[in-house]
TrEMBL record:
Listed SUPFAM superfamilies: CRAL/TRIO domain (SSF52087), CRAL/TRIO N-terminal domain (SSF46938)
InterPro entries assigned: CRAL-TRIO_dom, CRAL-TRIO_dom_sf, CRAL/TRIO_N_dom_sf, GDSL, GDSL_esterase/lipase, SGNH_hydro_sf, SGNH_plant_lipase-like
Keywords: Hydrolase, Lipid degradation, Lipid metabolism, Secreted, Signal
GO BP of this protein: lipid catabolic process
Protein family: Belongs to the 'GDSL' lipolytic enzyme family.
Gene Ontology terms, MF aspect: hydrolase activity, acting on ester bonds
Basic and acidic residues bias locations: 7-23
Cellular compartments per GO CC: extracellular region
Residues passing through the membrane, by range: none
Annotated region (Disordered), positions in chain: 1-23
Protein name, per record: GDSL esterase/lipase
Segments forming a coiled coil: none
Compartments it resides in: Secreted
Length: 588
């Protein structure tokens, strides 16, 4: 698979930080026990990630976290915050300017909410609260419900006591502290006037100590306090009124489109659907929600890019394009078994119509480059491509749907080492071709651990993992790392970085509970042993609690795993990203 993305930003901690301690995992299970029977209409909200956030906000007290969760569930049943859509709150431009989520992250990869209470509101308190809730829902989505993964910047220029009525402020605080606890890491109050001090004294009585500790005051005439902003944000992205160099202001049209896309993603998290769109199921691929490339785009502050087949205008491809194809391989004939074998009708029809080998994907990319050059000129096209990131993930289908497939003779013709060498040589040639087309920044993913995927478990006698299958892909991954070092050395201006998918997956499988998973030996949607004999089909109901499953279907991980992979790619250390992570690559 390959993705072209216009660049954005960063973060860092290592893989271990994703894993909760055994004590935390035990507390999460205790809260589940105290909650009793969970409401079936909100399995996504009552995920391990949400429970962890509530525990974090309540100082890891299972009693207090359970109490707050029960209150939040009751409120959500009545208010239905997940049902609020952009169209419900976007009637007036002023209301959007009062509060919006930025298209950049802070230097720690946290989502940023900007509020401007001095912008005059023409709607009722009820409508203003609805907008607040809509933004909070989007913050939880951006953070995947992780604790303290959002930053709130409040611009007090022009503020008066009439700007924020006391009742409105109290109601807002009540919602944030009781129904979205632990979400905000830092609240930055920029340039509050002198009169705000009396207002702050009154409101302090209603602010929990934990929340009060997160408040920072910043004044534009105080260089010491301004350093908070320069330490936390990229000056090129930060608005000029907060000390940054961004003078563009909020583009309402672009923002509206971004929020509509977020609405679509939110709906897909809850409502699983089959559709042959790009010949994939789920929203956008072999997953119950986001793939790790899409989550990576979100972390970079980018919109989801359209499939190449649907990106007809130059304006669309300037944001990026998705050239990926199900069952595609480095070798042109990989994935052909879906056409040759009567496995299942839906997949066979899909692959027959739409399997696009990597060579053809590169040709499509070259067409995109020509399209951009024709519209903007060769020099402008080259400059834009040099700032873009190409995500490439290939190789798994060359093993699963070629080397290991019974209707191929590849395994008889090549030993494991010979096949790994063949793939690496071809892959190097293909990546060089992308470089010659103008790409300069690459994230290349190794093949993940396949020895424990449901389709392999279903074929083993005792339902056990296959070290042999993992042993086949390791030489290829080793070859790719050496090959990327060579490309970095020999191609001027090239920046290739390697994502160790195999290592991340092994860490999850070695200690699933630490990552919030409890089911590792079957797909959430599939038929037969381990949910892996026949992969997910339109009529199959998926499992209820997808966040507890490592595998979505016979072959692919769930969105919860994809989020972990994306965050490691974005901010991981040298144990999983070599030589630099995606956040660092985006800043070059």
């Amino acid at each position: 698979m390959s993705y072209l993305l216009k660049t954005r930003r960063e973060r860092e901690p290592p893989l271990q930080e994703h894993a909760a301690s055994e004590e935390q995992a035990a507390k999460i299970n205790k809260v589940r026990e105290l909650l009793g029977e969970l409401p079936t209409e909100m399995p996504g909200f009552l995920s391990d990630a949400t429970i962890r956030r509530f525990l974090h906000a309540r100082n890891w007290s299972t009693i207090q976290a359970t109490k707050t969760l029960k209150e939040a569930v009751k409120w959500r049943r009545q208010y239905k915050p997940e049902k609020i859509r952009w169209e419900d709150i976007a009637e007036r431009e002023n209301e959007v300017k009062r509060a919006y989520i930025t298209d950049y992250l802070d230097n720690n990869g946290r989502t940023v909410l900007v509020s401007r209470p001095s912008v005059k509101s023409v709607t009722s308190v009820k409508e203003q609260i609805k907008q607040l809730v809509y933004n909070l829902e989007n913050l939880t989505m951006g953070s995947e419900n992780a604790p303290e993964n959002a930053v709130w910047v409040i611009d007090f220029r022009g503020w008066t006591l009439s700007s924020t009525p006391l009742a409105m402020t109290r109601q807002s605080l009540d919602i944030i502290q009781n129904y979205y606890p632990g979400l905000v890491a830092v609240a930055i109050l920029c340039n509050p006037p002198k009169i705000f001090e009396s207002f702050w004294k009154i409101m302090s009585y209603f602010i929990e100590p934990e929340m009060k500790e997160k408040v920072r005051f910043v004044y534009s005439n105080n260089s010491e306090s301004l350093r908070i902003m320069t330490d936390m944000f990229d000056p090129d992205k930060l608005e000029s009124e907060f000390g940054g160099r961004n003078t563009w202001g909020l583009d309402i049209v672009e923002y509206s489109e971004r929020m509509r896309r977020r609405d679509q993603i939110k709906a897909s998290h809850k409502n699983w659907r089959w559709k042959i769109l790009g010949y994939m199921y789920g929203k956008d691929g072999r997953s119950n929600a986001v793939t790790h490339h899409e989550q990576g785009a979100e972390l970079l502050g980018l919109p989801l890019v359209p499939p190449y087949s649907q990106a007809s205008s130059v304006q669309q491809v300037l944001q990026g394009a998705n050239y990926a194809s199900a069952a595609a391989g480095i070798l042109d004939d990989s994935g052909g078994n879906f056409i040759k074998e009567p496995v299942d009708l839906y997949l066979r029809v899909a692959m027959q119509a739409g399997r696009i080998p990597f060579n053809q994907q590169i040709q499509n990319f070259e067409s995109t480059v020509a399209q951009i050059a024709g519209a903007a000129g060769a020099s402008a096209a080259a400059e834009r491509l040099a700032r873009s990131i190409v995500f490439v993930e290939m190789g798994s289908n060359d093993y699963l749907n070629n080397y290991l497939a019974p209707n191929y003779d590849t395994r008889r013709r090549y030993g494991p080492r010979q096949f790994a060498d063949l793939l690496a040589r071809q892959f190097a040639s293909q990546l060089t071709r992308l470089y010659r087309a103008g790409a300069r920044k690459f994230v290349v993913s190794g093949v993940g651990s396949m020895g424990c995927i449901p389709t392999v478990l279903a074929q083993s006698v005792a339902g056990r993992c296959s070290p042999e299958v993992d042993g086949l892909v390791l030489p290829f991954n080793a070859n790719v790392r050496v090959m990327l070092d060579g490309l970095n050395a020999n191609l001027p201006g090239a920046r290739f970085t390697y994502l160790d998918n195999f290592r991340i997956f092994k860490a999850i499988l070695a200690n699933p509970a630490a990552f919030g998973f409890s089911v590792v030996d079957r797909g959430c949607c599939g038929i037969g042993r381990n949910g892996g004999q026949i992969t997910c089909l339109p009529f199959m109901p998926p499992c209820a609690d997808r966040e507890r499953y490592v595998f979505w279907d016979a072959y692919h991980p769930t969105a919860a795993v994809n989020v972990i992979i994306a965050r490691e790619a974005f901010r991981g250390g040298a144990d999983v990203m070599v030589p630099i992570n995606v956040g660092q690559l985006a800043r070059l």
